Amino acid sequence: MKSTLFLVSALTGSLLTFTACHQDNNVLPSGFPYQSSFQRDNDGWVAEITDYSVDQKDIMEFKSAYKGLPTPLDTTRKSLMLESMNRSDDAFMFLKKKVTGLQPNKDYSLLFEIELASKYATNSIGIGGSPGGSVFLKAGASSIEPVKELKDDFYSLNVDKGAQNNEGTAAILLGNIGVGDDATAYKLITRSNADKPFTAKTNAQGELWLIVGTDSGFEGLTTLYYSSIKVTTKTIL
After folding, report:
1. Beta 52-53 vs 198-201: how paired, if at all?
2. CB contact at 8 A, 19 and 214
3. What is residue 217's predicted lDDT score, i.e. its pLDDT?
4. Where are the domains positioned within the chain?
5. Is 153 exposed, middle or buried (0-12, 13-18, 19+ CB in 10 A)?
6. Contact of 82 with 67, CB cutoff 8 Å
7. How many other C-beta atoms are found inside a 10 Å radius of the C-beta of residue 148?
8. pTM for this structure?
9. What is the Cα–Cα distance from 199 to 147, expressed in whole angstroms?
10. Lowest model confidence (mean pLDDT) among 1-10, 80-89, 150-159
11. CB atoms < 10 A from the CB of 127, how many?
12. pLDDT in tens, 34-71
């Protein structure tokens, strides 16, 4: 079914969603394998940022958009752009997506393959850390929806995604966003956990919430473009 895309934009502290009319993307697709290259629309992914204090809410400069890849890449190819200024030295920019149609209360072994556009040199030097080497890409899943919570004047995630290069029960480390030494222009990079499958258990409704995002130790501006997210799996007996 064809649909008209509406983009809802928001700044720091506000949940940014992309919505397609006449289609509930939050319940598609049914089961695995799952893949989206975002060429028709955002495929129901929702963007958010956590790990900052109430006092930093207006200076995180969080933005997200459904748009073409940056130059010198193919600008006609669509992607999901996430951007923020990491004032907290620990910002977590992420995307989430609900997948249904799985077996209830079952463990699944998940393999992620994420393609994104980055322009940050791996061994570069920046405030607090490297713009490429100190921004860590993570992926995982949870049986409950990952949401931003406010506790003790600090915005954090309600599921355990770990801290920077440390993994959590809801997310695994895929590497960093570095594109090599001396990089200055955007390039497409691919990260996966092919050598280390991630295990997640569905809820009673046979649902999983997928999570893909960056945990940053670089205290500066990071702008990334997610161009493809692929997840394959098998049920663990």
Report:
1. unpaired
2. no
3. 84
4. 30-236
5. exposed
6. no
7. 18
8. 0.86
9. 20
10. 1-10
11. 12
12. 999 999 999 999 999 999 999 999 999 999 999 999 99
Calpha distance 155→208 (Å, rounded): 23
Tell me the residue type at 51.
Answer: D
Q: Where are the beta strands (DSSP E) in the chain?
A: 5-7, 16-20, 34-36, 46-50, 52-53, 63-68, 78-85, 92-99, 107-118, 135-142, 148-151, 154-157, 172-176, 187-192, 198-201, 208-216, 221-236
Candidates 2.30.29.30, 3.40.710.10, 2.60.120.200, 3.90.550.10; correct CATH number of 30-236?
2.60.120.200
Q: Under a CB-based contact definition with an 8 Å cutoff, are residues 75 and 69 in contact?
A: yes
The reported pLDDT for the residue numbered 131 is 83
Tokens of 140: 């995982």
Percent of the chain past pLDDT 90, that is, above it, reads 73
